[in-house]
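so my prof wants the structure for this chain in the tokens format not the other one, which i didnt know existed until like an hour ago. anyway here's the sequence
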Amino acid sequence: MNEMDISKEISDLNLNYLLLAQKLLRTDRAAAMLRLGTSRELADMLVGMSLAEIVRLAATNFVLCSFRLDGLPTTMAAIGGAKEASLHQAHISIVLAARQNAALAEGARA
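here's what i got, hopefully its the right format
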């Protein structure tokens, strides 16, 4: 895979992510902010963006979304845990919500 192919794949990923984020935010803002791990300000910006702005932003050579499972405890909670699917989903939601709240609190202190 060459550099042009990688750039195209990244742009496609970004575009899909931004369009999904915008759709989720317009459908249920609070749930979308939790699922996406976004701040109120970022949610406002994404909802207000035009398609042309989204396409321009997606064209960057950097992945715009990030993995929230970047710590070992969070990753282990996501892949292991409860045998019952609903309990497993609830556990992941709690872990990610707690992590988002901690990040928001840290940002407020800065």
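also thought this was worth mentioning. The mean pLDDT is 82.
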